[in-house]
Amino acid sequence: MIGYPILAIAPNRPEGYPKFEDVQVDRTGVSRADVVVTCRVSGFPAPNVHLWREVKTDGQTDYQRIRTDGRIFVDQRKYDRYTLLRGIIRGATSADAGIYLCSADNSLGSLRQQFRLTLGEGSTSKQAGLAIDGVTVDSTGENNQDVTITCTATGNPVPSLRLWQYKNGNYQVVQRSRRVVLNLQRGEKKSVFKVTIKKVTQADAGVYICSASNSEGTVRQQFNLTIQEHAVAGKGLPKMEDVTVVRTGPSNENAVITCSATGSPPPDVKLYKQISSEKDKEYQELETGGRLILNESPGASGTILTLLVMNVLPEDSGVYMCEASNTGGTVRQSFRWGIEGGNQQTAHGS
């Protein structure tokens, strides 16, 4: 089974616009006869994600939304800043092969990613003597600038493993080089193949296949490797070092909120307060004015932002969020603060 995503380079879009982080097709269930499609999409607000299949009627191409029905199960789960959709096709057959797409939309716009699902006899995992157990992708090395791909397969005889990258219209075997380290470990019935790509670039992103072969045949598992901007050499994702709240003044009538973040280049730091319900989580940026005095102090590798709240009032209590951004990306830490208590309160992030 191989999925061939049809990808396009997205133009610059505002922060929070839907972004496909991962689209995977896996086999599971008894005899690995079920197909699981996973679409993970980030965005703020968390986007709505749906699964569709291409259908042709009277020579016209259209897409039909896939819903839970009989042997098909579709589950969408929304989190703070991303949505995870899983579609399970039980007892998949060649009739389920075709072109599919995941669509994503929120208040900022919409996006879709298309892929081809093939269920040819030579590309499934139905053989009792051969199966790919899993493929994982981990960020490693200094500043997470390296990527390690691990393919695990079982079979009798013990299978050999290869990694392929889709380039220039076809799949090419990933070879050992100065930047690529290959490590194959073979046991009695299990093989583990680790490929480490050092100092990844955007050229390393794209569609890959892990293939496992023995005398029973060949099975493959396709996955999409996304390289986050902060993982590219020379760019450092900001790190939130500290968030504190300190009461000041003769009678503790004032409060100072401090957000400290580091990164390369030094990040811009902003402070927000939640102005809606816990469910909606809408935030408003805080600025100097009235009882608020905001000050941002950039340093060689970090930035400290302080907010002085004068004559604190009960309405100053609530959920706040520190945000740090640079060319490597954006990190956020939210915390809840109330005006009651002693001289100092440490904010606990979430």
Q: How are the elements arranged and paired?
A:
Blueprint: E1 2-3, E2 19-28, E3 34-42, E4 48-57, E5 60-65, E6 72-78, E7 82-89, E8 98-106, E9 109-118, E10 130-140, E11 146-155, E12 160-167, E13 170-173, E14 180-186, E15 190-197, E16 206-214, E17 217-225, E18 239-248, E19 254-262, E20 268-274, E21 283-285, E22 292-298, E23 302-309, E24 318-326, E25 329-337, E26 344-346
Antiparallel strand pairs: 1-9, 2-3, 3-7, 4-5, 4-8, 6-7, 8-9, 10-11, 11-15, 12-13, 12-16, 14-15, 16-17, 18-19, 18-26, 19-23, 20-21, 20-24, 22-23, 24-25
Q: Could you walk me through the main structural features you see in this protein, from its secondary elements to its overall organization?
A:
With 350 residues, the protein is mainly beta. It has 3 domains: 1-126, Immunoglobulins (Immunoglobulin-like), CATH 2.60.40.10; 127-232, Immunoglobulins (Immunoglobulin-like, Sandwich); 239-346, Immunoglobulins (Immunoglobulin-like, Sandwich). The protein is built from no helices and 26 strands. Strands 1-9-8-4-5 form a 5-stranded antiparallel sheet, with no helix packed on it. The relative contact order is 0.12. The model is unreliable at 1-10, 120-127, 229-234 and 341-350 (pLDDT under 50).
Mean pLDDT over the residues: 79
Would you tell me which CATH topology of the largest domain applies?
A: Immunoglobulin-like
CATH architecture of the largest domain: Sandwich
Order of helices and strands: EEEEEEEEEEEEEEEEEEEEEEEEEE
Poorly predicted ranges: 1-10, 120-127, 229-234, 341-350
Strand tally: 26
Shape: elongated
The portion of residues assigned to helices is under 10%
State the domain count.
3
Largest sheet: 5 strands, antiparallel
Distance between the termini: 39 Å
Q: How much is the radius of gyration in Å?
A: 25 Å
- The CATH homologous superfamily of the largest domain is called Immunoglobulins
Number of continuous helical runs: 0
Roughly what fraction of the amino acids lie in strands?
over 45%
* CATH top-level class of the largest domain: Mainly Beta
Biggest sheet: strands side by side, in what order? Answer: 1-9-8-4-5
